[in-house]
Amino acid sequence: ILLTVDIIEDDIANKQVEIDEATAEYEAAKQKEQDQQEAMKLRIKFMYEKGDRSYLDMLMESQSISDLVNKSDYVEKLYAYDRKLLDEYQATREEVYELKTRLESEMTDLEELHSDYEEQSNTLQALINEKRETLEDFESQ
User: Fold this and answer.
1) CA-to-CA distance for 31 and 22, rounded, in angstroms?
2) What is the Cα 93 distance to its own chain's centre?
3) In angstroms, what CA-CA distances link 69 with 42, 58, 74, 75?
4) Backbone dihedral region for residue 46 (phi beyond 0: left; psi -120 to 50: alpha; all else: beta)
5) Which of 33, 39, 123, 140 has the most Cβ atoms closer than 10 angstroms to its Cβ?
């Protein structure tokens, strides 16, 4: 039983390290999510301040073929940039969700280990008390 208690203590220490690492990863991912959200807000603000011109309107206002090609290239780059920002943000949100789920799972595991530790400690204490009583009975005879 003493060996079991020692093993559980080691498991608790290891689980605490895993939780600390998971917490750090989760906090970093949350910060990254906030940063990306702020970047997207700035992009939306910029688009609003520059006017609500659609990509099609921009292309239709072209003065020449070369102007159309330039604007088309510009629109394509803007769209790719916006899409990239959105994809990165969605990936980060998914990562945050997965890390949060992992952290919650690790915390549940730690609670179970603490429960096992408590149970084994109580069993060990009961065994010690029983042996102590047996020794006292033996000494009194």
Assistant:
1) 14
2) 9
3) 27, 11, 9, 10
4) alpha
5) 33
> Rg of the chain's alpha carbons, rounded to an integer?
31
Residue 45 corresponds to which tokens in the numbers above? 């603000």
Quote the crossing angle between the two packed helices 65-140 and 2-49, to the nearest 10°: 160
Distance CA 30, CA 17 (A): 20
Lookup result for tokens 């029983």:
130
Cα distance between residue 12 and residue 115, in whole Å: 11
What's residue 51's pLDDT? 65
SS3 readout for 10-29: HHHHHHHHHHHHHHHHHHHH
The tokens describing 44, both together, are 């939306």
pLDDT tens digits along 9-47 = 999 999 999 999 999 999 999 999 999 999 999 888 887
Q: Which domains does the chain have, with CATH numbers?
A: 2-140 (1.10.287)
pLDDT at 52 over 60: no
Q: pTM of the full predicted structure?
A: 0.72
34 token code pair: 């906030």
